[in-house]
Design a protein that fits this description.
The chain is built from five helices and eight strands. The protein is an alpha/beta fold and 169 residues long. The protein has one domain. The strands form two sheets. The chain has a four-stranded parallel sheet with strand order 2-1-5-8, sandwiched between helices. A four-stranded mixed sheet has the order 4-3-6-7, with no helix packed on it. The chain is globular, with a radius of gyration of 16 Å. It starts with 8 loop residues before the first strand and ends with a helix.
Length: 169
């Protein structure tokens, strides 16, 4: 017996590994993900906006409506991307399940990925509250037992320990 730990798979926001998928087209990798986490796990990139067919660069989107059913809407055009994003998210989470993904690291404050930090507006111009982004909310519903964190303040070793503990059941 070699004593080597089995490979774990962790799904991450694609922007955190340096993929140019952000609305502004800029690279915004996270050193804790590309340096620390990538050395300990196989990373599975996710980007609901690009998956929904949004171009790069693109107009920004915000979340509107109720926290239990937010709508992802373009801030300039008013185009509603919710159905397309949610369809991609469900297919991506099916893929994550098939791959045995054991945890998630998502981009803070993103309307798709924020874990309790995405801005939610009742209406355009209204003040905002905080909620889960579309992907983060879907992960919470589908995989409530798996670790889910944001990139900001990520403690790689503690997160990987939580992932391994969850995998053991």
């Amino acid at each position: 017996m070699s004593g080597a730990l089995p490979t774990i798979r962790i799904a991450v926001s694609a922007c955190l590994i340096g993929e140019p998928v952000r609305y502004d087209g800029l690279e915004k990798s996270c050193a804790a993900v590309t340096g620390g986490l990538a050395a300990l796990a196989e990373l599975v990139p996710l980007c609901p906006e690009v998956g929904a067919g949004m171009p790069v660069p693109r107009e920004a989107v915000d979340l509107f409506g109720a926290a239990n059913a937010p709508r992802m809407v373009g801030v300039v055009t008013g185009e509603d991307w919710t159905a397309r994003a949610n369809a991609w998210i469900e297919a991506a989470l099916d893929r994550c399940a098939a791959l045995g993904v054991a945890g998630f690291v998502l981009k803070a404050r993103s309307p798709s990925c924020g874990v309790g930090t995405a801005a939610l507006y009742e209406a355009p111009g209204a003040s905002s509250s905080r909620t889960d982004g579309l992907l983060a909310g879907a992960i919470r519903r589908r995989f409530p037992h798996l670790p889910l964190v944001e990139d900001e303040g990520l403690d790689v070793e503690a997160f990987v320990a939580r992932v391994r503990a969850a995998a053991r059941g």
